[in-house]
Amino acid sequence: MNSAFCYETNIGKIGIVENGSFITHVYFGESTPQDANITETPLLKKASKQLQEYLEGKRKIFNLPLAPKGTEFQEKVWRALQEIPYGKTYSYKDIAKSIGNIKASRAVGMANNKNPILIFIPCHRIIGTSGKLVGYAGGLDVKEKLLEMEAIF
């Protein structure tokens, strides 16, 4: 059974979901899956603590069990996103190149858009080839704030 809990952060409310062993989703706002128990488990507390530390500039690497579910291609992209170092940005093309498919920039963008574990899988570190900010589930203002916090923008 999934458990979920919402936390107040300096970028707004964030809901975190776990399946008993792994973090499976992060949501902006108070939305959580209808089938989830709304309870703060030890894993959710740990995730919240690491998220708060990150947002306070005290943490650069997350140490959490993550289990995003998607297609084989999406999961490959999400693994590549986790390799982007704190304080760096990559383009869709950079990720496409890193997964061995230079022509997959558009597909990388779609996979990035479907990332179910925002922030912990740092899709906010993806910018356009021109250096401009591109879409983000939490809004471009949140993306800009995260990048500024990492001293990228």
Automatic annotation (TrEMBL):
Key word Transferase present: yes
Matching Pfam families: DNA_binding_1 (PF01035), Methyltransf_1N (PF02870)
Every Methylguanine DNA methyltransferase ribonuclease-like domain range: 7-68
Reaction(s) catalysed by this chain's protein: a 4-O-methyl-thymidine in DNA + L-cysteinyl-[protein] = a thymidine in DNA + S-methyl-L-cysteinyl-[protein]; a 6-O-methyl-2'-deoxyguanosine in DNA + L-cysteinyl-[protein] = S-methyl-L-cysteinyl-[protein] + a 2'-deoxyguanosine in DNA
Residues annotated as the enzyme's active site: 123
Enzyme Commission (EC) number: 2.1.1.63
Record-linked InterPro entries: MethylDNA_cys_MeTrfase_AS (IPR001497), MethylDNA_cys_MeTrfase_DNA-bd (IPR014048), MethylDNA_cys_MeTrfase_DNAb (IPR036217), MethylG_MeTrfase_N (IPR008332), MGMT (IPR023546), MGMT_N_sf (IPR036631), WH-like_DNA-bd_sf (IPR036388)
Superkingdom of source: Bacteria
Protein name, UniProt field: Methylated-DNA--protein-cysteine methyltransferase
